[in-house]
Amino acid sequence: MIGRGHPWLSLAPALGVIAVLFGGGLALGLAGSFGMGRGGASGDAWIAVLSEGRVWRSLGLSLWIAFASTALSCLIGLGAALLLRRSFPGQGLARLLFQINLTIPHAVGALGILWLLSQSGFVARLSAGAGLIDGPAGFPALTQDRFAIGIIAHYVWKEVPFIGLILLANMQSLGDDPESAARSLGATPFAAMRLVLLPLLMPALIRAGAIVFAFSFGAWEVPVLLGQSAPTALPVLAWQRFTDPDLAARPEAMALAMLIALVSAVLIRAAFAGRNR
Amino acid sequence: MKRMMTGIIGALILAGGAARAQEGDALLEMSWEEIVETARGGEVNVFMWGGADNINAYVSDYIGGRLEEEYDITLNRVPLTDTAEAVNIVLGEVEAGATTGAVDMIWINGENFRTMKQGDLAWCGYVDKLPNAALVNFDNPAIANDFGTPVEGCEVPWSRVQFAFAHDTARTSEPPRSIPELLAWVEANPGRFTYPAPPDFTGAAFVRHVFTHVAGGPDALIGPFDRAKFDEVAKETWEILNGIEPHLWREGVTYPTSITQLQQMFANQEVDLFFTYDPAEVGTAVVNGIFPETARSYGLSDGTLANTNYMVIPVNAANKAAALVTQNLLLSAEAQLEKAQPEVWGAATVIEPDRAPDEVQAGFAALERHPSVVSIEELGQAALPELQADWTSAIEDGWIRNVGN
Fold this sequence. Notes:
The structure holds 2 protein chains of 2 kinds. By secondary structure, chain A is mainly α. Chain A folds into 2 domains: 1-33, no CATH class; 43-276, MetI-like (MetI-like fold), CATH 1.10.3720.10. Chain A has helices spanning 7-33, 44-50, 53-85, 91-99, 106-117, 122-129, 149-174, 177-184, 189-218, 221-226, 234-242, 250-276. In chain A, helix 1 (7-33) crosses helix 12 (250-276), helix 5 (106-117) crosses helix 7 and helix 9 packs antiparallel against helix 12 (250-276). The longest helix of chain A has 33 residues, at 53-85. Chain B is of the alpha/beta class. Chain B folds into 2 domains: 22-155 and 313-331, Periplasmic binding protein-like II (D-Maltodextrin-Binding Protein, domain 2); 162-306 and 379-402, D-Maltodextrin-Binding Protein, domain 2. Chain B is 44% helix and 13% strand. Chain B has 17 helices and 11 strands. In chain B, the strands form 3 sheets. In chain B, strands 1, 2, 3, 6, 10 and 11 form a 6-stranded mixed sheet that branches. The longest helix of chain B has 19 residues, at 53-71. Chain B is globular. The model of chain B is unreliable at 1-21 (pLDDT under 50).
């Protein structure tokens, strides 16, 4: 059945699920942000959210987390993919180790970062034991810190293999031919990589980067475990509003969630547009 | 496609189950024996904060086991990190017109109960049906009011708790024993104290202690919300809390975000004082090896907040009969005694022991508490009533705006 007939017809079940589950949630969230479903519609929640300094500070923090995590993941993921594509003894094992953390849930990874990097964590205790610092508390604040280092460290740890794997698959389908051709025309290995391979990889890198960006911008579990108490990442703020016992805060929670979706969609659209120009 | 089919079939099964839902009014017409017969063979979905293993085990194993054995009822415990999540589910269902909800019972109090009562989300008026309700003194104001909101038969009490502090006698031999002493102690011991940032429940309760201290005691704050009074007290409270900020953990640049985090920091000796709304927790932490044997909980000379927590049945609960049987079992003298055993939970009872059978009375009299847990009598000598929910939410908002930024 699938594969025959009009493509739209074959796609209908998948599109239907996306439209109902994803589009429906979005529509309900948008309606909720205007206070619909509890008598009448008003833009009060949006006005309250957009005129609140805390929201803008949270937005700034979330943008910083998402940009820094995406840039570092792309850079390291690209480097790792370039190294791993060459054949060398033990390559299979190296690839396995590289991708092993893909299956670990984000919340578990974040707890691992906490045990490792917090001021009462493993590294802090080792440093104190080795006499490098006076006590575990003398360890620099790497979690619940102002620059969200713990959060970014987690995302980079988690997303580097993701980017790397997508690029490896992409390089496999490109094959060695474009680079070989460039080499035979006199390009140095570095020039062949920079001028031929990288531009060919760019679309895949931007796509993978967009996924990483959208996730690190909109996810809640990592900043709630590793983040400061204020400002909180935007999704944490939205969750706090959603679980506020005061029901009047719910439209604000919806407005915040819509803001997250909107900012993320606009930025990703801009990244694709910049590429296609 | 296959997945979709499974989804549709699942939805049909759910709809079929919904048809069996019991109408609350019909149940209230029945005798207790008829209610028990209706409940037999069914299930009950209990939504409750799931952060303590011993509490989870008590509900799942002891209560769940007895329900299964005596009534053939299956108890499904659904763990929450925040009770408001369950309230949100009920609210969403009621808004959508779903008359057979997924939530049969919620462990609740304070602001969340006020929300349920205000939104007509709580099922009311069934308490007289429970035979074991006779063990409870509903005239006691501490039971008849939930954070200042009249209970009025819309929820059933479960446990009493009172806020307490904790210290490690090996590290801090003389802990501060009042709010003014604590404020001075914080300044003298920089970096050794902090509190979880509201909206964390326990962190918000700590802030209320300072607020009550500034107001000169709880009497000034009893009754409905008073904006002028609030502004006056709040201004000074924020000054005090901002004043101690440089002496807190990490110079107050950030605060722990949950009470669990503070517990770990105390265990890791990052801070010297811990506090909890459930002193039995300190004993549990010692038994589990999280806190040292030398950890002790204690009260304050100027009093600590006390409250009662409850079980509420949502107005659209699908399994009301089973929920009633569960509530009756939770209130039974044996279950309350089991819950009070220090190795089980150590939670203070809401029933009047002298209304219970003799052997249960003897059991209560023979309770041994863990040496790390402050005695209920000692704590109870200085108990502060909780503020009304309007006060507590104004204090939380004010802290976030003026101190937490």
